[in-house]
Design a protein that fits this description.
The chain is an alpha+beta fold. Helices cover about 35% and strands about 15% of the residues. It has helices at about 20-30, 35-45, 50-65, 70-80, 85-95, 100-115, 130-140, 340-345, 360-370, 370-375, 395-430, 435-465; strands at about 145-155, 170-175, 190, 200-205, 210-215, 225-230, 240-245, 250-255, 265-270, 280, 290-300, 305-315, 315-325, 380, 385-390. The strands form four sheets. The chain has a five-stranded antiparallel β-sheet, with no helix packed on it. Strands 1-13-12-11 form a four-stranded antiparallel β-sheet, with no helix packed on it. A four-stranded antiparallel β-sheet has the order 7-8-9-10, with no helix packed on it. Helix 1 runs parallel beside helix 3 (about 50-65) and helix 11 runs antiparallel to helix 12. The longest helix is centred in the C-terminal third of the chain and has 32 residues, at about 395-430. The protein is globular and about 85 Å long. The protein starts with about 20 loop residues before the first helix and ends in a 6-residue tail after the last helix.
Length: about 475
């Protein structure tokens, strides 16, 4: 990292003639004022065309603008003019683009420069890139061969809308579905199993790190207290976005720990019957130097999904849809397309000859078309373990009619509670005239809650033929 007030190679930064100093321009880049920094760099370049620091900072500005291709040209020009620190930035971009041999060459050239200029006592920062380079090289040796048949760009805060899972795969839900008082942290996703008996999600611990939480439904259909799902899974970093396969053993989640390529990576862990084991990075092409998360696999449709920020689209994100293999097969390490397949430069490169995905697309379209009819209308647990969420799931028409009554009464009771809370707030501020209405509403709500309980019992008896367990 360049130190404010010092050039890329250790000399004091000079102010531009009639313009901003290099330190001021660097601060603009750091705070994200990229247009202002670009204008200042253009002015500086006109005044000092041979100043390598100008090209170096231009490269930094282009990297911040997600324009690595232009940044490479700027850093190359900076190096040509004498900025050897630009070699490390070129190496960093090469690692992100999986050009590991080029990265090695840049680092070697930088070290050779340091050896040649020992009297300048410049720090060797090349070691900062070594772990990422090593992980990238290692993962390129085992890029999984998968078929990515489609991708879609969506808003980051709406990315779950692109996931189309059958009910058998469970459900990915907003954290608002958690019972009142249960702790969660944004951003996260709640995974609920097909039978509705377990939910997993992410919440921050006392160290402000995301950890996975789990909660099970008890025999009386209440929820047990949340518990941690293996604090070790994040390996000292965040663990979030869980998806549990129907086998109840295989867990996918995202973490930004030291085994990550950069940002969030997708990891897998398996439960040995007692606890989840040490997680493993699932590798490429799922993971990249950017955020990759929320991998979900639907075994019924044979389709998997994951979200990736690798295309750097600002507030947008790419959702990849792939066909999971029965067993892992890796791309040949001598395949000339290895880097392209690892980075998913083009998903068409993953398609087999004469690929036909019409049946898969039809299955997904069917799920999409039925989404509104499958939308959760309520959540009502039965004593046999089932959790009904739609009227058409009732086998008893009488029970369905009572459920409509229950939903209506529940809504009006919730509205009454909100009104009561507002009145209590007024009373607490000194408006004692609300006292009689508060007492009246408290009696009405108590009566409504007793009626809700009676209707719920009637629904269960009707639906289960009087056989209430």
């Amino acid at each position: 990292m360049t130190v404010a007030g010092i050039t890329a190679d250790g000399a004091p930064k000079a102010a531009t003639k009639g313009g901003k100093s290099m330190t001021e321009i660097e601060l603009m880049i750091r705070r994200g004022a990229l247009d202002e920094a670009t204008e200042a760099l253009d002015s500086a370049a006109a005044a000092q065309p041979k100043n390598a620091e100008i090209d170096y900072l231009r490269g930094k500005c282009l990297v911040a603008s997600n324009n690595d291709a232009a940044a490479v040209k700027a850093f190359t020009e900076a190096n040509r003019k004498g900025s050897n620190n630009a070699l490390l930035d070129l190496a960093e971009i090469a690692i992100r683009e999986y050009r590991v041999d080029d990265a090695d060459d840049y680092i070697d050239s930088y070290k050779a420069y340091l050896t040649k200029n020992k009297r300048k006592k410049l720090p060797d920062n090349s070691g900062d890139l070594a772990p990422q380079l090593m992980r990238t090289r290692s993962m390129l040796d085992r890029v999984e061969k998968i078929v990515v048949f489609d991708s879609i760009v969506v808003d980051k805060d709406e990315f779950l809308s692109a996931y189309r899972l059958s009910p058998e795969a469970g459900a990915l839900l907003d954290p608002e579905v958690l019972p009142a008082g249960v702790d969660f942290s944004d951003p996260t996703v709640v995974y609920r199993t097909e039978d509705g008996r377990e939910m997993l999600w992410g919440a921050q611990n006392d160290e402000s790190l995301f950890t996975l939480r789990s909660m099970h439904r008890l025999a009386d259909n209440s929820w047990e207290e949340p518990e941690a799902v293996g604090d070790h899974l994040g390996m000292g970093s965040d663990a979030n976005y869980p998806f549990l396969m129907p086998d109840g053993v295989t867990l996918y989640f995202a973490s930004d720990n030291e085994e990550s390529l950069g940002g969030l990576d997708i990891f897998i862990s398996r439960n040995n019957g007692t606890e989840f084991l040490q997680p493993q990075n699932v590798g490429m092409p799922y993971n990249s130097p950017y955020d990759d998360y929320m991998l979900a696999i639907d075994e019924l449709t044979g389709v998997g999904f994951w979200a990736s920020d690798r295309n750097r689209l600002g507030d947008k994100i790419t959702i990849y849809m792939f066909i999971p293999g029965q067993s892992r097969v890796n791309v040949d390490i001598d395949d000339p397309q290895l880097a392209d397949l690892a980075s998913l430069r083009s998903i068409r490169d993953t398609w087999p000859d004469n690929a036909d995905f019409s049946n898969i697309r039809k299955a997904l379209d069917g799920l999409s078309a039925n989404r509104n009819s499958r939308a959760q209308q309520f959540e009502f647990p039965l004593s046999d373990g089932r959790v009904l969420t739609r009227y058409n799931q009732f086998t008893s028409s009488h029970a369905a009619d009572m459920m409509r009554q229950y939903v209506s009464l529940s809504k009006s009771t919730d509205e009454a509670r909100q009104r009561l809370d507002a009145l209590r707030l007024q009373y607490g501020k000194g408006d004692t005239s609300t006292g009689p209405e508060i007492l009246s509403m408290e009696r009405d709500i108590a009566d409504a809650e007793a009626q809700l309980k009676r209707v719920a019992n009637d629904i269960i008896r009707s639906e289960m033929g009087g056989n209430v367990k």
